[in-house]
Amino acid sequence: MINWSNCPEVESTQERVSGCLVFVGSRVPIEALFKNLEDGITVQEFTEIFPGIKLEQVKAVLDFAAKNSLFAA
User: Fold this and answer.
1) 4-69 has which fold?
2) How many Å is the maximal CA-CA distance in the chain?
3) Contact at 8 Å (CB) between 69 and 38?
4) How confident is the model at residue 40 (pLDDT cuts 50, 70, 90)?
5) How far apart (Å, rounded) are the C-alpha atoms in residues 9 and 23?
6) 16 class by beta-carbon count within 10 Å (0-12 exposed, 13-18 middle, 19+ buried)
C-alpha cells in the first residue's frame, strides 16, 4: 500500500469526503482518477470531467504512485 502522506497533491481530512484521500483543495478522491483510468478515460478527459483538478496535479499523483508502488510490496 502506498503511503500518500508524502505526496503534496493529496490530502485527507475527516471533514472532507469522510477522510478519503482527495486532491488538495478539492473533494475529488484520488481513487476516482485510478478508476477512470482503468475505464479508459485519458488524463486530459479526467481534468475535463473534474475541472478543479489541474493536469499537473494528476501527473504528480501518477508519478508519485509509480515511484512508490515499487516499494509498496
Assistant:
1) Arc Repressor Mutant, subunit A (1.10.10)
2) 33
3) no
4) very high
5) 6
6) middle
